[in-house]
Amino acid sequence: MLDFNLPGEDGLMITRNLRSHSNIGIVVVTGRTDSIDKIIGLEMGADDYVTKPFGLRELLVRVKNILWRISLTEQNSITAAELEQNDDLFHFGQCCFDIPKRKLFKNNIPVKLTKTEYP
Description:
By secondary structure, the protein is of the alpha+beta class.
C-alpha cells in the first residue's frame, strides 16, 4: 500500500519505479479524489486506487484480489530454463509447444488453445 502524499517523496514516482522493476501488488491509498489522480496512478502502474476514508473490509478485499491475481500469474508462468530442459517441447519463433501436455507457450506465458485448435 502506498500513499501519494509522502513527506519528501513523490508517490507517483515510487509507483512507477516499483512497477518497472517488479510485479509486486500496489494499492494506492490516498486522500486525492480527483479522477485525473486516479487515472495517473493507475497508468503509473498501481493495481488499485482507494481514497480516504475507506472501509477496512473493502481494502482487505482489494488486497486479496491483487494477491490472487499475482499468484495466478506466477502459477501460469514457466521459466525459460524449464522450457529448454524439456525434450518433449517443439520450439518455433517466440513460441514453444509441449506435445504431451498439449500446451502452447509464447514468451514463456501459456496460450489457451481451443479444442478446434488442438483436439
